[in-house]
Design brief:
The protein is of the alpha+beta class and about 290 residues long. The protein is built from 12 helices and 10 strands. The termini are far apart.
Length: about 290
């Protein structure tokens, strides 16, 4: 990364270059250094086992790990990512990256929510070693923390955008989402407070222009890192959630969330004067238990 550029993001993802760039498709089709390595790795593998093993033998594992490059055939690749560098290296609640094309599929999980958005082409998504889905343009998958999955994009035209949301701050940053009574709110409340939660939510939005526009704006805001970009990211994500609910709320997750919803709505209506003691008393709990 040239001097003056901002910190590179994690392995294979676009680094923020100083100066504004507004053409989403020019940016996401641009080849990054790690992507070119992964493409070479893929091409060597197509030449046959001998050529591939010879190529692997010439690689230095410590240099690959330092660069954040994953080669599952060379070393153990399972990782659990936390809410730390390089995932949230800008110290914000939301991170938005392009998933590198030709990255070898490797199992991983994370301590944050992730939204996988296929913008072009296709991707093979494996979840918890049981579910295999071929995602195509317009497909969106929302994953809670702790879900093991891998994503395979072996196509130059496969453009996938990943949106990561900090679980530790979600309840504060997206209180309005949690205090609503709908499919997405139930999903996130289960992930934050439930003993058992769904493995994922899956939407087929096709060529929905409003949703695609939200994803493009999220990516460009994070990429350009302009003043107040954190506020714009949250605003765009609210729009994204709203458009999903407007067009795709038939994907409803059943469950008993009435008490949690009543608590959230009470706090939303009494946020100026609510205390632990008064709220616990209202719901007939002791302050210690309610906390």
């Amino acid at each position: 990364v040239p001097d003056g550029d901002r910190e590179a993001a994690a392995a294979g993802n676009i680094s923020g270059i100083i100066g504004m760039e507004n053409n989403f498709y020019d940016l996401v089709h641009r080849w990054e250094k790690n992507e070119l390595f992964y493409k070479t790795l893929y091409e060597k593998k197509q030449l046959g086992l001998n050529a591939y093993q010879e190529f692997l033998a010439g690689l230095k594992q410590d240099e690959l790990m330092e660069a954040g490059i994953c080669v599952p055939d060379l070393f153990e690749a399972y990782t659990r990512f936390g809410e730390i560098d390089p995932i949230f290296n800008l110290d914000v609640d939301i991170a938005v990256w392009k998933h590198s094309r030709y990255t070898p599929p490797y199992r991983h999980s994370h301590d944050y929510f992730e939204i996988v958005c296929v913008m072009e082409g296709k991707a093979l998504h494996r979840i918890e070693e049981k579910i295999v889905m071929e995602m195509t343009a317009g497909d969106i998958c929302i994953l809670p923390d702790g879900t093991r999955h891998s994503l395979e994009v072996m196509d130059e035209n496969g453009i996938v955008i990943n949106v990561m949301l900090k679980k530790s701050t979600f309840r504060y940053a997206f209180f309005d989402v949690l205090s609503a009574d709908n499919m997405l709110s139930n999903f996130f409340r289960d992930a934050l407070y439930g003993d058992v939660h769904a493995a994922y939510l899956y939407f087929k939005t096709g060529n929905d222009a409003e949703i695609h526009s939200c994803i493009e704006k999220l990516f460009l805001e994070y990429y350009n890192h302009r003043k107040y970009f954190e506020k714009v990211l949250k605003s765009q994500l609210f729009c994204f959630f709203t458009y999903l609910l407007r067009g795709y709320e038939q994907y409803y997750i059943p469950g008993d969330h009435r008490l949690e919803l009543e608590i959230f709505q009470y706090l939303k209506n009494h946020f100026m004067d609510a205390t632990l003691e008064t709220t616990a008393k209202y719901f007939n709990y002791s302050p210690a238990y309610f906390s």
